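**User:**
Everyone, produce one record:

**Assistant:**
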Amino acid sequence: MKGLFSTAEAARLAVASLKANPVRGVLTTLGIVIGIVAVVTTMTAANGLANSFKESVAVLGADVVYVSRTPWMFDGGFFQFRNRPRIEFAESAELKARLPRGVVVNPTAGTDRSVKFGSRTADNVGVVGTTEAQALISSTVPELGRFITEADVHHARRVCVIGATLHENLYNRTDPINTELKIGRAEFRVVGVMEKQGSAGFFGGPDFDSQVYVPVTAFMREFGGAARNFDFAVKAPAGVGVADFEYEVIGAMRGVRGLEPGEPDNFAINRMDSLVAMFNNVMGVVLLVGLLVTGVSLFVGGIGVMNIMLVSVTERTREIGIRKAIGATRKAILVQFLLESSGICLAGGALGLAMSYAVAAGIDRFLLPASVSLPIVGVALGVSMVVGVVSGLLPALRAARLDPIEALRYE
């Protein structure tokens, strides 16, 4: 009980000391404020980027295996894959025939073209030739209108579905359904607008919201797709693990290619989780480097708090002597100064958090989805407390070890 009263008294004196020097307290917290803003903003931006990326690649499907000419990520150069035969559209039907009934196989090919509506033009737009199976592969659906149908593919109709960004840039979000959109030199009728999907551009992937989807048959006719390289998206049946299904796809594709046992694959198998794993590794390094760099500002802020507290100990030497003379223990003096330094840093941390919310709101509005989560708040306040204790430890020890007689003689 005595220790409790002693701590309460130390806390009261610490608060009184901070109130007595408000300007000094505010200036001392500036370094902590800047450090907390830097750390919280780094963590918030990294968290927002991770969430945005994962939402975007979810379009690829967690239960989907992609057959491509080259892997999405590889250590060596592209030249090791240059002699591989291209993936041809006709192989998709044979691959589907070799797989169990009910497996969805969606062949796609892509090119870049300028897209024009009225007086508005978008350059280097990704044009994707696909089939109605795209709707079964992807988790996204049209926000307006419909997607490509089997009849569109069968009759090679010049219809298209546009992404959310194109809808905004070319149509100013007005109704585009049944309008004529010029893709390259060909005109396509808009039948749908996809909901917002985001971008996988972190690894050079596509911006899904700036793409145009057309029937693969119309794509081959208008853009020379018959001679292009295709990718096959193969969706695993319900209840089948994607890892096991991958081996089935490899075996079936080897059969399509007529590869003998012992011959290496002349195609690549890709999965979404490989992208996510690579992203997590890269983001871990980026976040670590970012925190180390922004941590420097916290270190500088902590040094500033330590210097101010050492000055405070020197200025209040006589006060410390009087307190010791009337019975204050070393522990009470130590706790008082630690509470002062911790209070300064916690105040700086709280102010830094308030500013971080404003920064996060700006990031969320103009760059990518971001918000300050509760774990980040806890980390920020915890770091502030640790910096306060560490910065105040040396001054507190110096104050606690002062000889009361020498302290009372101090002028």
